Amino acid sequence: MKKSTLLPFLVVISALLISTISYSETIVNESFESGFGSFTSEYGGAKVVSDPTTPLGSQSLQFIFSLGDEGGYAPDIVGTGYAPKKEIWGEGYFKLSSGYVFHPYEQKLIFIWGDTFNFYISISSWGDRKMFGCWQGSGSTYRNASGPDIKTGIWYKLNFHMKMNSAAGAKDGIFQIWLNDALVLDFSNVPYQGSGQGSDHGFHSMAFTPVYGGDSTPVPQKQYIWFDGAKISTTPIGTSPQTGQPAPPFGLRIN
What we know:
It is a single chain. By secondary structure, the chain is mainly beta. It has a single domain, classed as Jelly Rolls, CATH 2.60.120. The chain has one helix and 16 strands. It is globular. The chain starts with 5 loop residues before the first helix and ends with a strand. 38% of the residues are buried.
């Protein structure tokens, strides 16, 4: 019986495909199931706690705001660093305790740092309780808030995408935010600073830094913010949408 030459051919092709296709470019992947993992606590004010409600596993990262704490500060900075990247995709989850009282201005959640700027994801209070993206650098601020009002006591899935501008000073940088897989912020004209200047420039670290507002307004009651899961990748993560129409922008400010 004549032997088929098809099977060896398929085996070779399969091996080539496996060796050349990249399924993931994940550079941070932490579930907090074994403590802080790859993250570190700067002040010791956050802790990993047992949480049966968490979307991932059974542990979450908890921050406590005590009655009378001065606004403008975070209970802790829990962060991690990585080699500078010109484009990143992120994913995680957050929840505010039931009845959480917002600062009159905003509730910062996550910071992403670059070489000459920072970017943070927050919840606004000046335009209802909407997701808020803010880039800060060289004395200027670029911000917008959009999407549904954030409710307390429930978990939200948060995805973001950030891409450096093509050259220093160019206003073609990107930031996008999804809330529960719905695109709520979509900008393609962000003037990130320091980009396009070599491999050592780019986004290089992230931190859970839930700052209560931006001034000294005190915390009115004991309350909590929880985070779960932290992924950073140079390619889209999971089923995160890459296209779509954002909700109408609210409160664009350039200072």
